[in-house]
Amino acid sequence: MKRAAVLAPGYGGTAEQPILRALASQLEPFEIASRAITFRTRGIRPSKDYVSEIEDMRTTRDALRGKGYERIALVGRSFGGRIAAFLAEREPPDALVILGHPIAPPKRPRPRDESALAAMVCPTLVVQGDRDELGPFAVLERIAAKNPRIDLVRIAGAGHDFGAREPEAVGGAARWLDSVLR
Asked: Residue 96: its pLDDT value, please?
Protein backbone atom coordinates (compact mmCIF):
# COMPACT_ATOMS: atom_id res chain seq x y z
CA MET A 1 0.00 0.00 0.00
CA LYS A 2 1.35 3.41 -0.98
CA ARG A 3 1.30 5.98 1.84
CA ALA A 4 2.01 9.70 1.79
CA ALA A 5 1.80 12.90 3.80
CA VAL A 6 1.18 16.51 2.75
CA LEU A 7 3.42 18.74 4.89
CA ALA A 8 2.42 22.38 5.46
CA PRO A 9 4.74 25.00 7.01
CA GLY A 10 4.21 27.45 9.80
CA TYR A 11 3.21 31.04 9.03
CA GLY A 12 5.57 32.63 6.53
CA GLY A 13 7.48 29.37 6.10
CA THR A 14 8.17 27.43 2.95
CA ALA A 15 8.34 23.82 1.86
CA GLU A 16 11.98 23.99 2.99
CA GLN A 17 11.12 24.76 6.63
CA PRO A 18 13.63 22.74 8.71
CA ILE A 19 11.01 20.92 10.80
CA LEU A 20 9.27 19.75 7.61
CA ARG A 21 12.55 18.55 6.13
CA ALA A 22 13.30 16.72 9.38
CA LEU A 23 9.90 15.04 9.33
CA ALA A 24 10.26 14.07 5.67
CA SER A 25 13.55 12.33 6.45
CA GLN A 26 11.97 10.54 9.43
CA LEU A 27 9.12 9.29 7.20
CA GLU A 28 11.45 7.80 4.55
CA PRO A 29 12.39 4.63 6.52
CA PHE A 30 8.67 3.94 6.94
CA GLU A 31 8.18 4.27 3.17
CA ILE A 32 5.81 7.20 3.61
CA ALA A 33 6.29 9.68 0.79
CA SER A 34 5.97 13.35 1.63
CA ARG A 35 5.18 16.47 -0.34
CA ALA A 36 5.89 19.74 1.41
CA ILE A 37 4.09 22.83 0.20
CA THR A 38 4.60 26.57 0.29
CA PHE A 39 1.34 28.48 0.55
CA ARG A 40 0.93 30.86 -2.36
CA THR A 41 -0.10 33.59 0.11
CA ARG A 42 3.32 33.43 1.80
CA GLY A 43 4.59 36.90 2.54
CA ILE A 44 1.14 38.49 2.42
CA ARG A 45 -1.92 38.26 4.61
CA PRO A 46 -3.68 34.90 4.59
CA SER A 47 -6.67 34.68 2.26
CA LYS A 48 -10.19 35.32 3.55
CA ASP A 49 -11.36 32.26 5.47
CA TYR A 50 -8.05 30.62 4.39
CA VAL A 51 -9.66 29.57 1.10
CA SER A 52 -6.38 29.78 -0.87
CA GLU A 53 -4.32 27.91 1.73
CA ILE A 54 -6.92 25.15 2.07
CA GLU A 55 -6.97 24.81 -1.72
CA ASP A 56 -3.15 24.54 -1.79
CA MET A 57 -3.35 21.56 0.60
CA ARG A 58 -6.27 19.99 -1.26
CA THR A 59 -4.48 20.29 -4.62
CA THR A 60 -1.35 18.59 -3.23
CA ARG A 61 -3.42 15.84 -1.59
CA ASP A 62 -5.34 15.23 -4.80
CA ALA A 63 -2.10 15.09 -6.83
CA LEU A 64 -0.82 12.37 -4.49
CA ARG A 65 -4.07 10.43 -4.91
CA GLY A 66 -3.65 10.78 -8.66
CA LYS A 67 -0.22 9.15 -8.34
CA GLY A 68 -1.74 6.09 -6.66
CA TYR A 69 -1.20 6.85 -2.99
CA GLU A 70 -3.94 5.07 -1.08
CA ARG A 71 -3.43 6.40 2.46
CA ILE A 72 -2.72 10.12 2.83
CA ALA A 73 -2.16 12.21 5.94
CA LEU A 74 -2.31 15.96 6.35
CA VAL A 75 0.49 17.34 8.51
CA GLY A 76 0.97 20.92 9.54
CA ARG A 77 3.39 22.95 11.60
CA SER A 78 1.64 25.72 13.57
CA PHE A 79 -0.26 27.81 10.95
CA GLY A 80 -0.02 24.86 8.56
CA GLY A 81 -1.64 22.71 11.24
CA ARG A 82 -4.54 25.13 11.48
CA ILE A 83 -5.03 24.89 7.71
CA ALA A 84 -4.74 21.09 7.79
CA ALA A 85 -7.40 20.94 10.53
CA PHE A 86 -9.77 23.19 8.56
CA LEU A 87 -9.43 20.92 5.50
CA ALA A 88 -9.69 17.76 7.63
CA GLU A 89 -12.89 19.04 9.21
CA ARG A 90 -14.49 19.27 5.73
CA GLU A 91 -12.75 16.36 4.01
CA PRO A 92 -11.39 13.90 6.59
CA PRO A 93 -8.00 12.49 5.60
CA ASP A 94 -6.65 9.13 6.69
CA ALA A 95 -4.76 10.92 9.48
CA LEU A 96 -4.02 14.43 10.73
CA VAL A 97 -0.91 15.63 12.57
CA ILE A 98 -0.43 19.11 14.04
CA LEU A 99 3.04 20.04 15.28
CA GLY A 100 2.51 22.93 17.68
CA HIS A 101 -1.12 24.04 17.40
CA PRO A 102 -1.51 27.81 17.94
CA ILE A 103 -5.06 27.18 19.10
CA ALA A 104 -5.35 29.94 21.72
CA PRO A 105 -2.74 32.72 21.55
CA PRO A 106 -2.85 35.13 24.52
CA LYS A 107 -5.82 37.50 24.25
CA ARG A 108 -6.74 36.06 20.83
CA PRO A 109 -9.16 33.17 21.32
CA ARG A 110 -9.74 31.08 18.23
CA PRO A 111 -13.13 29.41 18.61
CA ARG A 112 -13.08 28.28 14.96
CA ASP A 113 -9.80 26.41 15.59
CA GLU A 114 -11.23 24.82 18.71
CA SER A 115 -14.43 23.70 16.97
CA ALA A 116 -12.50 22.32 13.98
CA LEU A 117 -10.25 20.24 16.23
CA ALA A 118 -13.18 19.09 18.37
CA ALA A 119 -15.01 17.90 15.24
CA MET A 120 -12.22 15.60 13.98
CA VAL A 121 -13.45 12.20 12.83
CA CYS A 122 -10.05 10.99 11.56
CA PRO A 123 -7.17 9.78 13.73
CA THR A 124 -5.51 12.99 14.92
CA LEU A 125 -2.22 13.64 16.68
CA VAL A 126 -1.32 16.98 18.25
CA VAL A 127 2.30 17.29 19.39
CA GLN A 128 2.60 20.26 21.71
CA GLY A 129 5.23 21.77 23.95
CA ASP A 130 3.96 22.12 27.49
CA ARG A 131 5.33 25.69 27.54
CA ASP A 132 3.70 26.72 24.24
CA GLU A 133 2.10 30.12 24.90
CA LEU A 134 0.27 30.07 21.55
CA GLY A 135 -1.38 26.75 22.33
CA PRO A 136 -1.87 26.12 26.03
CA PHE A 137 -1.82 22.41 26.73
CA ALA A 138 -4.90 22.73 28.97
CA VAL A 139 -7.00 23.90 25.99
CA LEU A 140 -5.91 20.88 23.96
CA GLU A 141 -6.51 18.49 26.87
CA ARG A 142 -10.07 19.82 27.27
CA ILE A 143 -10.81 19.19 23.58
CA ALA A 144 -9.09 15.79 23.45
CA ALA A 145 -10.98 14.62 26.55
CA LYS A 146 -14.19 14.86 24.53
CA ASN A 147 -12.91 13.29 21.30
CA PRO A 148 -11.33 9.80 21.41
CA ARG A 149 -9.88 10.33 17.90
CA ILE A 150 -7.39 12.89 19.23
CA ASP A 151 -4.04 11.78 20.64
CA LEU A 152 -1.99 14.40 22.48
CA VAL A 153 1.75 14.24 22.97
CA ARG A 154 3.23 16.60 25.52
CA ILE A 155 6.81 17.66 24.88
CA ALA A 156 8.10 18.57 28.35
CA GLY A 157 9.95 21.84 28.63
CA ALA A 158 9.30 22.85 25.01
CA GLY A 159 7.73 26.02 23.71
CA HIS A 160 6.06 26.61 20.38
CA ASP A 161 9.25 25.93 18.39
CA PHE A 162 10.16 22.72 20.31
CA GLY A 163 13.82 23.85 20.42
CA ALA A 164 16.18 21.04 21.40
CA ARG A 165 13.16 18.72 21.74
CA GLU A 166 12.27 18.96 18.02
CA PRO A 167 13.75 15.51 17.20
CA GLU A 168 11.45 13.98 19.83
CA ALA A 169 8.42 15.76 18.37
CA VAL A 170 9.26 14.82 14.77
CA GLY A 171 10.22 11.22 15.57
CA GLY A 172 7.02 10.67 17.54
CA ALA A 173 4.92 12.06 14.69
CA ALA A 174 6.64 9.80 12.14
CA ARG A 175 6.13 6.66 14.26
CA TRP A 176 2.49 7.57 14.88
CA LEU A 177 1.88 8.10 11.15
CA ASP A 178 3.48 4.74 10.35
CA SER A 179 1.13 2.97 12.79
CA VAL A 180 -2.04 4.84 11.72
CA LEU A 181 -1.53 4.75 7.96
CA ARG A 182 -1.13 0.96 7.82
From this structure: 99
